[in-house]
């Protein structure tokens, strides 16, 4: 049933694909206050305004019901938006945007009150079907496409997980989850997870487009034809959403309202995580963690790869090497470290194994087209594969996590969930495997891209149910749009190459622009042998990833922080201590992401969409809006170009202020990654303490890089870091602001607002970049302060607001 490729690219197909048939004349058959339904060429088309800046378009071919149900979409109950549909049914006008519908032929486009137009159908091709031809009888219906006009001023980003650079203009993007060969190079297209979401920027104004289909998809972004973009699916109805923006933040906020946002993680999840395939015995794991403590390298979580299981049977423990898992979890708890275990979808076929027999007896596995159990080989040998589209399967899978949770496992790592099978070579389930799902049987080809997402969902729901007082921790390799509400995503089997350190930067930025705010790549690289310099540079970058984990394959050189000798160990320790200090800032960004969908690690263009120089800033990024990071991604290199966007930015180590926009050459020797702080913006930090596990630390430091420049501010978010009391108001927000001019610095620290009271007595204000002052007044009185070098430290009492005035 393998389908033809939508957009010609490589060579000429041997059989000419049937021509695309655009829709012809349409007639309005129904109008509501927010929608228009049209009928044309035996197809039904519906255009609906869901919010002032959000429209949905559905194309339903012959025999396809008008049905928008989707595993990607989190929100379906949109309140009726204020809109006007004109009498002819050719426009839907909301308070912010307009959908225009031409009837002869049917063409749809969007715009706003400023005259800006976006996502406008190509006049010649528009929307339609690519019929399969008389010799192909296909249960999926004809592939559908929509062609939009491309204007030369438009730039494309997003598209989820990719190997290439930040900008996607003139590219072709395939969405079909695979376990790609470990050499992730630019020649790869689709990878483990699929997010058919596009962020477009045209003359500084953003809009977005999301195609909601679990079939194989393709985007042609002005590749085949420089005047057009095409969005195609292999079958089923074509449903797409258009976001009016006009800022990237607003597009992302709406897109993540539609598909969901990350949940607030347990705070320990923001720490450093160590993994390796594989730590082979419980003793080895405890030894490893002790080593972290004795070397004073921060660590919050350790991972067990497939070797902890009994013959790779999921939800079991190997009796010989992990005989007392509860004792292991307990030892780690004493050391302040969480345990995360891998879970694969393949269930070993074994009559003595309850997970298998209960799944089989309850009819929860995928079937062949002819109705027998579908089987293939993965790590455990011959396996059956849970049909996660079935809610009963997900519940059963959730419950199975008890074997891990009951002994004290804190988090679940979902791997191989594209899904990947080994025979005849690594690939995925055949197209015609049957998913009986929730009553409506589907072929694998129809739900393929959802498999990993639904597995992660089952893990997430299992943690919620089995451990209701704690926040879930789930990491998943595969997913679809909306995965962010069930799991964080890591990018799979990268390699210990400098090129992959570089690639991680655009990769994570595009994931962030695609709704995945909580992401990370394996620090140090998974495959191949790393070097001390590579792991050090990668850690200097990795501490700014939302998910900060070092992981490597069994057949590679170990890459724990001390694996390369004392010199590198010291540098890696310092970097990880910096990560530890940044936790209050990062936690604030996680809370923002959970509320607005804003990426934590974000491209410069997210903040400066009108500055086209940011579109090619692939290998630098922002963390929140206060930090700019430009990692070194070449060996033996200490200098690199950094683009500094507008505003004043202060080099973290030298204190030198740079006024952007500017191109600068940063000096970044090992141990001093090129980090710039937004001038006068207070950044909340924990103290650099010997690390004994995650906790709210005393004192809290507000670090400000002071410069004669625009003023800055930031609002810290804090709560208990675990549990759900924050949903009852047990959180606190503290606003801090700083201005500096004419030799006078004013810092205002608000009193914390909200019911959460941090267990802390002291606050420190650390101002960098100033001479010894004449006077420091705290709330009008002489303050408690000291000065050395270019650094002023002011000691304050916690719990109240303060006004600090520094006079030069
Ligand atoms: O076939 O569990 O991406 O992180 O260490 C390889 C072993 C299976 C792939 C994951 C990797 C993990 C490895 N897994």
**Strands of the biggest beta sheet: in what spatial order?**
2-3-4-5-19-16-15-13
Whole-number mean pLDDT: 95
Structural class: alpha+beta
Strand content: 25-35%
Q: What can you tell me about this protein's structure?
A:
The chain is of the alpha+beta class. 17% of the residues lie in helices and 31% in strands. The chain has twelve helices and 49 strands. The strands form nine sheets. The chain has an eight-stranded antiparallel β-sheet. The longest helix has 31 residues, at 566-596. The protein is globular, with a radius of gyration of 27 Å. The N and C termini lie far apart (76 Å). Mean pLDDT is 95; it is low at 1-13. The site of ligand MIG has 11 residues, from loops.
What topology does this entry show?
Elements: E1 21-22, E2 27-31, E3 35-40, E4 43-51, E5 54-60, E6 83-85, E7 91-94, E8 97-103, E9 106-112, E10 117-118, E11 127-129, E12 144-149, E13 154-158, E14 171-175, E15 197-202, E16 205-211, E17 217-221, E18 228-233, E19 238-243, H1 248-259, E20 272-274, H2 282-294, E21 301-304, H3 325-334, E22 338-343, E23 347-348, H4 354-361, E24 375-378, E25 381-384, H5 391-400, H6 402-405, E26 411-414, E27 434-435, E28 442-443, H7 444-447, H8 451-466, E29 474-476, E30 488-490, H9 498-512, E31 519-520, H10 532-542, E32 548-550, H11 566-596, E33 601-602, H12 604-607, E34 621-623, E35 627-630, E36 639-651, E37 657-667, E38 674-678, E39 683-685, E40 700-705, E41 709-719, E42 731-741, E43 744-749, E44 762-768, E45 775-778, E46 781-782, E47 784-788, E48 791-797, E49 802-807
Parallel strand pairs: 20-21, 20-32, 21-22, 22-26, 26-29, 29-30, 30-31, 40-44
Antiparallel strand pairs: 1-11, 2-3, 3-4, 4-5, 5-19, 6-7, 7-8, 8-9, 9-10, 11-12, 12-18, 13-15, 14-17, 15-16, 16-19, 17-18, 23-25, 24-25, 27-28, 33-34, 34-35, 35-38, 36-37, 36-38, 39-40, 41-42, 42-43, 43-49, 44-48, 45-46, 45-49, 47-48
Helix pairs in contact: 2-3, 5-8, 10-11
Ligand MIG is lined by residues 277, 305-306, 342, 415-416, 477, 492-493, 526, 551.
